Amino acid sequence: MSTVKPIDDPERNPRVKAVFDDIRATRKTDFVNNLWRTLAFDPSLLENTWTEVKRLMAAPTALDPLTKELIYVAVSIANSCSYCVHSHTAAARAKGMTDAQHAELLAIVALAAKTNHLATGLQVPVDSAFEAAAR
Amino acid sequence: MSTVKPIDDPERNPRVKAVFDDIRATRKTDFVNNLWRTLAFDPSLLENTWTEVKRLMAAPTALDPLTKELIYVAVSIANSCSYCVHSHTAAARAKGMTDAQHAELLAIVALAAKTNHLATGLQVPVDSAFEAAAR
Amino acid sequence: MSTVKPIDDPERNPRVKAVFDDIRATRKTDFVNNLWRTLAFDPSLLENTWTEVKRLMAAPTALDPLTKELIYVAVSIANSCSYCVHSHTAAARAKGMTDAQHAELLAIVALAAKTNHLATGLQVPVDSAFEAAAR
Amino acid sequence: MSTVKPIDDPERNPRVKAVFDDIRATRKTDFVNNLWRTLAFDPSLLENTWTEVKRLMAAPTALDPLTKELIYVAVSIANSCSYCVHSHTAAARAKGMTDAQHAELLAIVALAAKTNHLATGLQVPVDSAFEAAAR
Amino acid sequence: MSTVKPIDDPERNPRVKAVFDDIRATRKTDFVNNLWRTLAFDPSLLENTWTEVKRLMAAPTALDPLTKELIYVAVSIANSCSYCVHSHTAAARAKGMTDAQHAELLAIVALAAKTNHLATGLQVPVDSAFEAAAR
Amino acid sequence: MSTVKPIDDPERNPRVKAVFDDIRATRKTDFVNNLWRTLAFDPSLLENTWTEVKRLMAAPTALDPLTKELIYVAVSIANSCSYCVHSHTAAARAKGMTDAQHAELLAIVALAAKTNHLATGLQVPVDSAFEAAAR
């Protein structure tokens, strides 16, 4: 259960309804997932969060839609957010992620976690070549 | 400085030399970065780590090379591995990442972190639709 | 379920009963939440943990009680501790946190997570002004 | 060093200059810290990030300015963001944080981390009382 | 529920069957836990993961089997992996971990988390003595 | 640099001197590392932290001294605490950790991180057998 009281009919609030309508129109589906329903307890937080997600994830940008979802899933795993892993894995699949790509995503996330812990355990100093490259 | 004694001439150990040679051949460069130089204190750990990195990151697989690096950078940021952020950002740039793509990668990682913390703070219950989708 | 066997009647152990009695007296409630019931498997760990929580969270100190709970919730979210998010959000509400304050707490935690990931992704060097300020 | 090329005179870009000017006006100081200077490599990311920080941290809201900074520092510690710990500790001090409050902030963050790890290690089930309280 | 479709009879795939048989033979039990059953959706990922776990955790090495499991549990707690905390706590118990050792493991993990957060909050500079010791 | 002003001669405070003397006596060395020197800005926080570290890490308990340090290093890596990785790796070496044991510690931490991320990415459900085992 969430840490805020679920609202019985959140769309009675016109600000909430406007966001939900935009979610449905943008995603071309009647389904509004629980993150948005839960955020409805504070219309400003709901509006600000959706605006940012829409601008970055639902509009054409420099990276293709599937790549963006794969990155989102990767961060959600590393931050151990169970809800986000479920919702963004579903989104990645909706954007065409195959089982083979899913397996490879997980393999890369796991390998990165492995070498992250190795480099932190060893306290490897940053190569001056990397610093120069940014110059 | 690292938590293990740097080895003066690590390639005097033939197992280390074989790995370093393979790194240079695979990446078509003379540069062997500090992670591998530091791992040289234990040839088995060095061999196992390189074998896994090479198989996943240096061979053609289901995801394209740049996408794989973007995922790697994303996890490294979320795990707060300074060395890894430097080395894999450099690798992504070497594989063609533009400044616009870099900015977008950072924006998505930051947005994911934001909604990860929101969903965890709200303890949003997983939608049954997501569970069904995996069925 | 927990990773330790729940104890049927933990208060048969006088050390456990003493801690539970102190929790009830300190908090002016009959309710002893699951963290303490689970810690009862090791009376020393239970005693040490409660002593520390009581000293810092249940006594008047430099920060007011609600601010202390907000900080506690913030850390619990960032560390992805589901139980702690629930228990300390409830505690914050018991100490007067309004819905507006809750929404703002979540917004700040989410924004901090966002800029944490940006700064780590960018590897922003620490300003010398900050170092001087600590001098 | 950062992972992006520092820009020599970032304020030659009018969008960057507008943000820097607003930072100086809002904070009543000539000092613009490195996070913003580094973000200048992508004016959109700079604008969006500053807009959000300004709205939440520099305007009067439900929580007082010092409490907001303490929460920000707490999250930055838990996410292990060295830059953010430095910058927001400096900000908290600028907003009046005393040494005693700083010590207590650190003590609470450390205690929360301790019980976060205990609860996660024990996999303590969430009390039904907490769930009811959110109802 | 997992993010991948559970496979009805995973051992109809001979590569999966070979891994499951090896798990049963190595551990001398008929029980194959859910991590392996879930990984069966991608036989290569299953094989690579099991090979690595077997080599490090099921073979005699420099550290004794119980110590290795305690380290594994500690990392799993810090990374907030609920499944891993359950599975490796069970494994540690199977390798002889007593209740007193379990309590002490949790106490050390909790103390380490506490001082980790203190040191990060204070940004304690690394002693030159530690760097010299690695030389 | 630390986020608190270093104190010129911290032992002029008798409470600080008492703790430093106890550190030197307990560890049989003149060396007092920076964590304690930095914590000296708040004698209560210094006393409480040292008391807890001494009780758990410097006294004979259910686990042997080296195992305790290995667990401490493992958590410090997973929490990405650079200072703690350095100080506890040095402590482990002082308690007899060999290079082979160090390499194995790192290999286990890295493997645990890998399977932590896999299990979180897959959202593997906890086996009922693990829950029963705790009963």
How would you portray this structure in words?
The structure is a homohexamer of 135-residue chains. The radius of gyration of chain A is 19 Å and the shape is elongated. The longest helix of chain A is centred in the last third of the chain and has 24 residues. The model of chain A has no long low-confidence stretch (mean pLDDT 96). In chain A, helix 1 packs parallel to helix 3. The first copy, chain A, is mainly α. Chains in contact: A-B, A-C, A-D, A-E, A-F, B-C, B-D, B-E, B-F, C-D, C-E, C-F, D-E, D-F, E-F. At the A-B interface, helix 2, helix 3, helix 4, helix 5 and helix 6 of A face helix 2, helix 3, helix 4, helix 5 and helix 6 of B.
Quick structural overview:
The structure is a homohexamer of 135-residue chains. Chain A is mostly helical and 135 residues long.
